[in-house]
């Protein structure tokens, strides 16, 4: 085994470079979206019951709002292109572009080859939280989703109401897919209202009680036609444990809002990514 090099301290002292500077990232017209939100009316309401999920459709140019209704509760969100489920939320690239947690003005990006904004966060009632002394913050794109496989791996359990399973059932019912078909489409989530981070000493993923309270909401603008699914996580506020029926759980509401006619001016749904997809083959 190699010993620590003499210049170890110097190597560690090299300052970091931001992987993806976002100066050239296409920016949303937030003032336009916010003005449109003011006159928007709720056209549909869905409820994710505790330890269950709901599916919902949001046409491009509408808004959707996830609301804490009865008590502190974390939600696991999946998003798909409503007309092509192979285009779906890409948590890893969203993290690379915006950081570990997202808030107002940041966007949820879709998978390759589309790589375009699916939704833009227009209002975040937890924007005040910032980053706490533990390195924790809210609305992360660092977790995956609680699932029965990891529970089985770590504890030998057969638990059926993890977010992964809840999202599968919601998608299966909404699109008439078998459980096996639906499972292929479920992906890493946006952890709505969840407070998470990595421990400074061991780098481990941690969670702590969500600061969300009834009435708090996270509001998105749909950049493309969306199918969404939201699971009210069995972890409740995620202050203690998940993947069981132990935690106190509450429902989450999803409101779909339609802006007034003409409120978006000449806004257009973003096109798919401009890369030519030849991957060095010359187009063969
Ligand atoms: Zn969960």
From TrEMBL:
Organism: Allosediminivita pacifica
Residue ranges annotated for the DUF1989 domain, each copy included: 48-227
Domain of life: Bacteria
Region described as Disordered: 261-284
Record protein name field: DUF1989 domain-containing protein
